[in-house]
Amino acid sequence: MRVAIAGAGAVGRSIAGELLENGHEVLLIDKAPTAISVERVPQAEWLLADACEITSLDEAALQRCNVVIAATGDDKVNLVVSLLAKTEYGVPRVVARVNNPKNEWLFNESWGVDVAVSTPRLMSALVEEAVSVGDLVRLLRFSHGDANLVELTLPPESALAGTQVGDVAWPEDTSLVTIIRGSRVLTPSPEETLEAGDELLFVAAQAREEQLEDLLSVRREVPLD
């Protein structure tokens, strides 16, 4: 897979390193000469250019890329890169970094963004995920299709504890992706039994999140002594 990354700062280089380790082709683009540090990611291709300019993107052969990542520290730049990648070059997957949470509402399919990653929001979500049981935590927003990656830790009193995945009437437009149980990552087969303390990861439409949380957190009747 060929990936172009606009922004060769610490974030862009870190992403490039991960992708290269996984066997992908990576092109790093930045207009600042000081950001061109070939020795830091020598396996990547490098291009000194303004990623907001059509001539630069032509030189980068963006039409050959499977994914474009707009990873600069400027939200305006990331939006322009995303829009050009999607509308001018037909890139199948566009991922954009959101630096200011106030701008998050702009990072949607209208601007060519398939996945928006807000670092402040993600850090906040990870804190919530670590301390919350029974509450739905939004980890990642997928702009295309208005869906989110959400997590809920199944509380001991949930009526679904002890229920097989295939027996649950899940809300429409939701999909259970993974069950994390201790150190294990489980594929949620219909025969898998949900257990209290399971971390459940879903891709769900935003309109279904409240319904999903109600279903998972509904409390079972506790018999009186």
TrEMBL record:
SUPFAM superfamilies cross-referenced by the UniProt entry: NAD(P)-binding Rossmann-fold domains, TrkA C-terminal domain-like
Signal sequence, renumbered to the chain: none
UniProt keyword annotations, A-Z: Ion transport, NAD, Potassium, Potassium transport, Transport
PROSITE patterns from the UniProt entry: RCK_C (PS51202), RCK_N (PS51201)
Domain RCK C-terminal, chain residue ranges per copy: 137-218
Superkingdom of this protein's organism: Bacteria
UniProt KW Membrane keyword: no
Stored Gene3D superfamilies: NAD(P)-binding Rossmann-like Domain, Regulator of K+ conductance, C-terminal domain
Domain RCK N-terminal: 1-117
Keyword Ion transport applies: yes
InterPro entries on file: K_uptake_TrkA (IPR006036), NAD(P)-bd_dom_sf (IPR036291), RCK_C (IPR006037), RCK_C_sf (IPR036721), RCK_N (IPR003148), Trk_Ktr_HKT_K-transport (IPR050721)
Protein known as: Trk system potassium uptake protein TrkA
Organism in which the protein naturally occurs: Streptomyces kurssanovii
